[in-house]
């Protein structure tokens, strides 16, 4: 069985972009692949976190993995810190990543360009840790949203670098970026991606948003004055974003079909359909979320996930340290 791995940071609440760009694919693929889905709680502290809030977000993140349909009987769900090999291989990866490579990473560059102060060393070397997360498990594919593709490409370069220097150590993984929904944009500013750090809170639909609030966010989404439901991300970014959301939530309905359904109809009617689809999905997720929270499933899932992950990760780390000559062979 081929293997797949991905992770999400528990910074803030998970949102519709996380679901559409990443989480729904984890669920979709769990039958066909051996899936490793972890919570990146080392990555999240690369920016300051309030410890109390982080506690809540961590638990919610696992609960939402389960509520969205990840099944611990099929997928290995675990916390990054429960598998210590991540930090250790992360350090080794860091020592093999060139500063020039880290300087080119757009996520870090964007933060620098925004003039954010006191950026941490951890944020800078984040892609090396991400490479370790992936390479520990030799996955064939890494399903991610568009913004993470560059990091997976660096991971590939690092895997090849290690294999050339030290012999065959790692499988070279492929990023898996869906054609539709890999970059869901903010509803209030469709030139920016939907993100947990949305200051106005109007552009981001959280998976745990109150349904009325979510509906309102969709209904007041920024569109244009073309009065035509047409898929054209360049000239009609707001409408195209809503079409991507609708398509992703309705079995990837083709854009042409959506255009035909709403030909000659107003944006109000189109937005109502998008809001219906969003609210139906949120309701389904939230119902299951409430069950999960009171069921003890979270701890059981994390324990069994970590057990399996540790087995694989420890073996890989030992192999790497040996290949690098770092261990005294007894
Ligand atoms: P993060 O919240 O940054 O940890 O992202 C977790 C996963 O969700 C990654 O695979 C991201 O690429 C994906 N993701 C985050 N924001 C979006 C978005 N606005 N649209 C699509 N995918 C996203
Ligand atoms: N960097 C990813 C994000 O911000 C989260 C992540 C950490 C990840 N390690 C990973 C994703 C390994 C895929 C594989 O979204």
In words, what does this structure look like?
With 330 residues, the protein is mainly alpha-helical. It has 2 domains: 3-182 and 296-323, 3-Layer(aba) Sandwich (Rossmann fold), CATH 3.40.50.620; 211-290, Tyrosyl-Transfer RNA Synthetase (Orthogonal Bundle), CATH 1.10.240.10. Helix content is 51%, strand content 7%. The strands form 2 sheets. Strands 1-2-3 form a 3-stranded parallel sheet. The chain has a two-stranded parallel sheet with strand order 4-5. Helix 3 (85-94) packs across helix 7, helix 9 runs antiparallel to helix 12 (267-293) and helix 10 packs across helix 12 (267-293). The mean pLDDT is 96.
Topology:
Layout: E1 3-8, H1 16-29, E2 34-39, H2 51-67, E3 75-79, H3 85-94, H4 99-103, H5 106-113, H6 121-124, H7 126-135, E4 141-143, H8 149-166, E5 174-176, H9 211-219, H10 237-249, H11 255-261, H12 267-293, H13 297-323
Parallel strand pairs: 1-2, 2-3, 4-5
């Amino acid at each position: 069985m081929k293997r797949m791995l991905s992770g999400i940071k528990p910074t803030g609440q998970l949102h519709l972009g996380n679901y559409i760009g990443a989480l729904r694919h984890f669920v979709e693929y769990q039958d066909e692949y051996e899936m490793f889905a972890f919570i990146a709680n080392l990555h999240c502290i690369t920016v300051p976190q309030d410890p109390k809030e982080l506690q809540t977000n961590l638990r919610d993140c696992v609960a939402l993995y389960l509520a969205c349909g990840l099944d611990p009987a099929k997928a290995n769900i675990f916390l990054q810190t429960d598998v210590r090999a991540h930090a250790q291989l992360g350090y080794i990866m860091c020592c093999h990543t060139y500063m020039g490579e880290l300087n080119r990473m757009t996520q870090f560059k964007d933060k620098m360009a925004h003039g954010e102060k006191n950026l941490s060393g951890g944020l800078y070397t984040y892609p090396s840790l991400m490479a370790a997360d992936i390479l520990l498990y030799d996955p064939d594919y890494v399903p991610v949203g568009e913004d993470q593709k560059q990091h997976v490409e660096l991971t590939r370069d690092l895997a090849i670098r290690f294999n050339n220097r030290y012999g065959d150590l790692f499988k070279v993984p492929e990023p898996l970026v869906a054609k539709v929904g890999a970059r869901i944009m903010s509803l209030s500013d469709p030139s920016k991606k939907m993100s947990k750090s949305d200051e106005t809170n109007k552009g981001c639909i959280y998976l745990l948003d109150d349904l009325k609030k979510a509906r309102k966010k969709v209904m007041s989404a920024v569109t244009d004055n073309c009065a035509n439901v047409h898929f054209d991300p360049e000239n009609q970014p707001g409408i195209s974003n809503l079409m991507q959301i609708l398509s992703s939530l309705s079995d990837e309905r083709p854009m042409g079909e959506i255009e035909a359904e709403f030909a000659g109809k107003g944006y109000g009617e189109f937005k109502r359909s998008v809001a219906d689809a969003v609210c139906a999905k949120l309701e389904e997720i939230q119902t299951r979320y409430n069950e999960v929270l009171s069921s003890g499933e979270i701890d059981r899932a994390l324990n069994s996930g970590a057990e399996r992950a540790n087995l694989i990760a420890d073996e890989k780390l030992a192999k790497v340290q040996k290949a690098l000559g770092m261990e005294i062979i007894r």
